[in-house]
């Protein structure tokens, strides 16, 4: 039997974190290609350091997406995040673009042709997870870590708290009783600030009301431990303070460590890459299983081989909370949704330019958008799955 009383911690990082700056730029490139050619292929990596951005990778798409345009997209992303500091400024940072054509050997495995369906862009394993801890069917620690930083970003960008800088990290430790989250025992926040004279106490005074508003009422009790800018001054932030790379925050992007991870990053990849699309599909299926009241917790694993269309395996773990047979559920999930790369893309409409918005504050637990963004958060399979209960 799973433990019922324990503490669990997850962290989040803001859109101005160096790695997230890189994720944002890489996904802006993906969107640019998909907007011009929905079947484009993109594998884009970004490096950011003091006043320098390097963009590299492989693409297959229209010639209208030039290096100059990609550099422009990067500048606009950095501008929107809010970097106008001496060591990293959207307007004058040096940007190098090194994108080349996709490997023909990869293309022959992925592309459909003759009697062969489109194959997976790589081998790998992907996990999806859902649970009843929150209305979003997400683990509480990661959900509230994201909410804290998203709230602080909103008041920073609105001008309400102009002293806050773009770079920030949060961490929340949640107390569980009888298997359910009931409160917070510690809160960690490190946020960049633009006034060097501010102390840690000043930053807590500014940020505490927004932290409290991001958490459920009554969750913060008197003995909660607070660490706000525990090292003191945090004025130099972003890539000027620490180099960033695409794809280094895969646990922040998913479930905060509360569920397994296959190891593949999402950002910078078009949806033929199962690292991204199959992770979205497995979250979609797990969320619908929980929403259909077939279980209180659900983990789903999908596995693929490069160039092969169908998944090699579908695995379901209901963690002892299930109201249906897991083997039957594994079979049913293959029937309610095509799990080939093309089947996933078509079902979730993943060829739309919807990825730049996913680059910060988590890929899961978000509201579906009218244009197809976060389509994997829909619960439109509930009616098909609910009859499996019994």
Can you offer a commentary on this structure?
The structure is a single chain. This protein is an alpha+beta fold. It is built from 10 helices and 13 strands. It has helices spanning 18-36, 67-81, 104-110, 140-158, 200-214, 250-253, 274-291, 326-336, 341-348, 382-385; strands spanning 6-13, 41-49, 52-60, 84-85, 88-89, 94-101, 124-131, 164-177, 180-193, 220-228, 244-245, 297-304, 313-317. A 4-stranded mixed β-sheet has the order 1-8-9-10. Helix 7 packs across helix 9. The radius of gyration is 21 Å and the shape is flat. The mean pLDDT is 95.
Keywords:
390 residues, 4-stranded mixed sheet, flat
List the helices and strands and how they pair.
Blueprint: E1 6-13, H1 18-36, E2 41-49, E3 52-60, H2 67-81, E4 84-85, E5 88-89, E6 94-101, H3 104-110, E7 124-131, H4 140-158, E8 164-177, E9 180-193, H5 200-214, E10 220-228, E11 244-245, H6 250-253, H7 274-291, E12 297-304, E13 313-317, H8 326-336, H9 341-348, H10 382-385
Parallel strand pairs: 3-6, 9-10
Antiparallel strand pairs: 1-8, 2-3, 2-11, 4-5, 7-12, 8-9, 12-13
Most strands sheet: 4 strands, mixed
The fraction of residues assigned to DSSP E strands is 25-35%
What oligomeric state is this?
single chain
- What is the H-and-E element order? EHEEHEEEHEHEEHEEHHEEHHH
Number of helices: 10
Strand order of the largest sheet: 1-8-9-10
The pLDDT mean sits at 95
Name the poorly predicted regions: none
| DSSP strand tally | 13
- Kindly report how far apart the N and C termini lie: 21 Å
**Estimated structural class:** alpha+beta
Shape: flat
Roughly how many Å is the radius of gyration?
A: 21 Å
What percentage of residues falls in helices of 4 or more residues? 25-40%
């Amino acid at each position: 039997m799973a433990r019922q009383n324990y503490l669990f911690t997850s962290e989040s990082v803001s859109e101005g974190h160096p790695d997230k700056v890189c994720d944002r730029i890489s996904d802006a490139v993906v969107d640019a290609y998909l907007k011009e050619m929905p079947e484009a292929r993109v594998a884009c990596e970004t490096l950011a350091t003091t006043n320098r951005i390097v963009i590299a990778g492989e693409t297959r798409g229209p010639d209208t997406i030039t290096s100059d345009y990609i550099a422009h997209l990067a500048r606009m992303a950095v501008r929107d995040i809010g970097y106008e500091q001496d060591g990293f400024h959207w307007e004058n940072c040096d940007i190098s673009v090194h994108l080349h054509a996709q490997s023909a050997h990869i293309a022959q495995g992925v592309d459909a042709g003759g009697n062969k369906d489109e194959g997976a862009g790589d081998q790998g394993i992907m996990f999806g997870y859902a649970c009843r801890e929150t209305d979003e069917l997400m683990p509480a620690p990661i959900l509230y870590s994201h909410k804290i930083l998203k709230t602080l970003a909103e008041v920073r960008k609105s001008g309400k708290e102009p002293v806050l800088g773009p770079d920030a990290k949060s961490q929340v430790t949640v107390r569980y009783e009888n298997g359910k989250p009931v409160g917070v025992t510690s809160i960690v926040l490190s946020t960049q600030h633009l006034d060097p004279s501010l102390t840690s106490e000043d930053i807590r005074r500014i940020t505490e009301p927004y932290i409290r508003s991001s958490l459920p009422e009554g969750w913060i009790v008197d003995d909660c431990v607070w660490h706000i800018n525990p090292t003191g001054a945090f004025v130099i932030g972003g890539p000027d303070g620490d180099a960033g790379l695409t794809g280094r925050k895969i646990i922040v992007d998913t479930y905060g460590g509360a569920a397994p991870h296959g190891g593949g990053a999402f950002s910078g990849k078009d949806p033929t890459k199962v690292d991204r699309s199959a992770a979205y599909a497995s979250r979609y299926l797990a969320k619908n299983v929980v929403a259909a009241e077939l279980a209180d917790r659900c983990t789903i694993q999908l596995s693929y081989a490069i160039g092969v269309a169908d998944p090699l395996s579908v695995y379901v773990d209901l963690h002892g909370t299930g109201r249906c047979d897991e083997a039957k559920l594994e079979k049913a999930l293959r029937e309610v949704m095509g799990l080939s790369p093309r089947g996933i893309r078509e079902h979730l409409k993943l060829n739309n330019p919807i990825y730049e918005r996913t680059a910060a504050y988590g890929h899961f637990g978000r509201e579906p958008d009218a244009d197809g963004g976060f389509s994997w958060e829909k619960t439109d399979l509930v009616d098909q799955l609910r009859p499996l209960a019994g």
